[in-house]
Design goal:
By secondary structure, the chain is α+β, with helices and mostly antiparallel strands. 51% of the residues lie in helices and 14% in strands. The chain has a three-stranded antiparallel beta sheet. A hairpin with a 5-residue loop joins strand 2 and strand 3.
Length: 100
C-alpha cells in the first residue's frame, strides 16, 4: 500500500475522491490539471487493487462509471487530515533570503 500512496498524484486523487460520495472519471480529471487520462486510470486501478477505491459501472450509453473511496480509504483520509493539521501548526513563516 505504501508504494501506491507514494506515487505521484495518489494523495491528490484520494483528497478529490473524499469531496463527494461518488466522482466520475472526467470530473476527477478536471479537478487535477496536468494529470493524463492514462496516469489517472492507472492510479485508480492501483487504488482499487489495494482496497482504497471502488468503481461502479452503470449500463448506459455512453457507459457511466463512478469512483468511490472505501471505508478503509475514508479512515486513511481522517489520518491525512490530522497530518495536514499537524503540518499547519508547525509551518513557520518563510524568511526572505537576504543578500550580503
Amino acid at each position: 500500500m505504501w508504494e501506491v500512496l507514494g506515487r505521484r498524484w495518489a494523495l491528490l486523487i484520494l483528497r478529490n475522491l473524499n469531496t463527494k460520495e461518488a466522482v466520475r472519471f472526467n470530473e476527477l480529471k478536471r479537478l487535477m490539471p496536468g494529470i493524463s487520462s492514462t496516469v489517472l486510470a492507472d492510479r485508480l486501478l492501483e487504488m482499487e487493487r489495494e482496497g482504497l477505491s471502488s468503481k461502479k459501472f452503470y449500463p448506459e450509453i455512453p457507459p457511466k462509471v463512478e469512483y468511490r473511496l472505501t471505508v478503509r480509504a475514508r479512515e486513511l483520509g481522517e489520518i491525512l487530515k490530522e497530518l495536514g493539521r499537524w503540518a499547519q501548526r508547525w509551518t513557520t513563516p518563510r524568511i526572505p533570503a537576504t543578500t550580503v
